Amino acid sequence: MKPKKAVRATVILAVAGALTAATMVALAPTASAGTTLRTAAAEKGRYFGAAVATGKLSTSTYVNILNREFNSVVAENEMKWDATEPQQGRFSYSGGDRLVSHAQANGMSVRGHALLWHQQQPGWAQGLSGSALRNAAINHVTQVATYYRGKIYAWDVVNEAFADGGSGGRRDSNLQRTGNDWIEAAFRAARAADPGAKLCYNDYNTDGINAKSTGIYNMVRDFKSRGVPIDCVGFQSHLGTTLAGDYQANLQRFADLGVDVQITELDVMTGSNQANIFGAVTRACLAVTRCTGITVWGVRDCDSWRGSDNALLFDCNGNKKSAYDAVLNALNSGTPIPTTPPPNPTTPPPNPTTPPPNPTTPPPGPSGCSASVTVNSWTGGFVVNVKVTAGSSGTRGWNVALTLPAGASVTNTWSATASGSSGSVRFANVDYNGQLAAGQVTEFGFQGTGTASGLAPTCTAS
Ligand code: 9MR
């Protein structure tokens, strides 16, 4: 996509101001000024990240800036579908692994980009449609998110699925033609594969309240109301020479739905307004409590996909630009994420005459264990997420049995070991999730072909 250059009037955000009294009370004391982007952002409880081309990790100017200034990275290309599954079912993680190792060695978190996107699909996927494509896409999400489980702070599960222009609807693509539920199927599969990662929807031309951002807003609201797992929305922010006056208000309306927001691919057209816009975007993020971090889409101007736009914070020699100073100043003067307010000292203590709960009463719940399933199906396939809850004695291990309808079969399983693939199937715990304390919950999942209706799991503890 191209950055949109003519965006409304030239309105630079005047941020701050709008803190409620309650928030003010809860703020941490002002921290000392950070001298790098990463320290300044960390002092405000945020990350500051860059998109990285792993091939440049051996260029010293590049890597010196990266390590000094950034505490989050995202692969510019190496974790996309064409890179990670170049042939169907054959996965390649070398580029992504290199970035993850670099991040781990340098105290950086990793954003994962992107599990599903209509662009940069491998040729074999471009040639698929219908349930074959749906199965392949969900399998891709499952495999890649499982492989990187525990290493990714936030995944762009789905990238750029909404149309430009005024429709506010979905973009046509091979993925969209598998059925409108492809996005929620992807989010459910990602949650089952890596329950610890934040799951984001990511898009561009959403830098303000407009038809496209409103379409996404409505999807997120719908997902939250139906329990589809979504944790965050990424605003790419490939910007031109102006910034929408409601940029911050747009972030805030998403945050008010109960998701985090992140600026995920920031770059800005060169010119007299560039530093102002970088500063205004940074201030907007810091003024929104749930804006957890900012990523710029590259390190130096010459690293950028935008070529002669000179759209980043460092020039080609690695010198800081005035845009850098604007961002650093905005970070240092921004609002820290509020700490949890201390309990109100004027609240009266609980009534001392209320008898304490009887300590000999056993905790509620049966001994053994119980299991429940969430099924996400589409024509020809399904993903099942199984929640195992330990009873009052806890478990040393567990076994879940269920019967699949005729014609259904399991194609892969995560966080459990399956015996059998059709009819009666049993799933046993793996090493790390067998031992559960009373009431503790663990989850595993499996994917299959056919239909998985009416599943009635039974759980046996050992
Ligand atoms: O910066 C990426 C560039 O190297 C690739 O050639 C391009 C391929 O489509 O993707 C660029 O990154 C895009 C990102 O993945 C999604 N949002 C738009 C970014 C810029 O096009």
UniProtKB/TrEMBL annotation:
Keywords: Carbohydrate metabolism, Glycosidase, Hydrolase, Polysaccharide degradation, Signal, Xylan degradation. Its EC number is 3.2.1.8. Residues 362-462 form the CBM2 domain. Residues 338-366 have a biased composition (Pro residues). One of its GO terms (molecular function) is polysaccharide binding. Residues 1-33 form the signal peptide. Residues 31-330 form the GH10 domain. InterPro entries: CBD2, CBM2/CBM3_carb-bd_dom_sf, CBM2_carb-bd_dom_sf, GH, GH10, GH10_AS, GH10_dom. The active site is at residue 265. Residues 332-370 are annotated as: Disordered. The keyword Signal applies. It catalyses: Endohydrolysis of (1->4)-beta-D-xylosidic linkages in xylans. One of its GO terms (biological process) is xylan catabolic process. Belongs to the glycosyl hydrolase 10 (cellulase F) family. This is Beta-xylanase. It comes from Micromonospora profundi.
